[in-house]
């Protein structure tokens, strides 16, 4: 290349969520989604890169494969890096930083390799190197094959730009969205999170129901690429007509501060009219009027907050409340601790794969509609 369409687009995912992200990409109309370790590959051109950043709720970031070549030593890397048509993708006035990972290759010194590529970019294109705001060029040298990928997202995509306030252990929006998908949420039914913290589940669900694109209010690294077309992007971003509010999205938490945060986050996301947050302990939970829906909950887990024995009692109480008052509702429970999940005595379906989250591995436990 450099980056003549169509090319490979890599949608990075939290390990364990690749198949769900592949499903999301397929449903969103991306071409040839294939789950691979660490993400999903699709093919497309620049408009698909922009659209992936704008609409995919489950991708952590979107990388663009701009080229690949073999290099067996640093002088060869230097020479081949100078042949890349950097001007087709990068601008001379925007800083770039190069991050290299080497594996099973003759070139094993990542920093030395990064310096060669940085120098090639600086000397052939004239772009400044480094700095906080720099566009990231991610380079993998694997079995002597050098693969160049531009990070088109910048800030990770779970930062939708609405959540200023977070609690002790917030769930990533990307993970919340894919767990909603795993529970077959389609925007038409109510969702309730009885331990909502900063409100991630109800806010994601309300946005999905309203047809709001997750990237509508933030900026992206690709806006600084040579290939960027501001007019086409503005047209792509133009808000779709709002879907009338029907289903409601409920969050409660025993902590006052959590409810204040969740309420403010929902207002910033533009879904205040669809969400309902209140301070309430799980034991006081009331089933909302209207049709059954989905309980999504991410209770505290021992390794992060509190003491495991108390947590057994808490999970037990949650299970009793849901079994007694939520017949017909489905449950999706996220925890790192299978023993705690079992303490709810909820009739879980076979467990989903483990997902890496903040140094822990968590898992989604789902039920069918409760009897
Ligand atoms: C792991 S955090 C949930 C984080 C949330 N998913 C988010 O994205 O911000 C667990 C939450 O459970 C709440 N909690 C703990 N015990 C509770 C109880 N008995 N009733 C209601 N909420 C409780 C805590 O206040 C905390 O906000």
Please report the number of helical segments. Answer: 10
Order of helices and strands: EHEEHEHEHEEHEHHEHEEHEHEE
The main sheet comes to: 7 strands, mixed
Shape: elongated
Low-confidence stretches: none
Strand order of the largest sheet: 2-3-1-4-7-6-5
Radius of gyration computed on alpha carbons: 23 Å
Structural class by sheet pairing and helices: alpha/beta
Each distinct ligand: S-adenosylmethionine
Approximate helicity band: 25-40%
Would you count the extended β strands for me?
Answer: 14
- Head-to-tail CA distance between termini: 57 Å
Strand content: 15-25%
Q: Average pLDDT across residues?
A: 94
Description:
30% of the residues lie in helices and 23% in strands. Helix 2 packs parallel to helix 7 and helix 3 packs parallel to helix 4. It has 10 helices and 14 strands. S-adenosylmethionine binds next to loops.
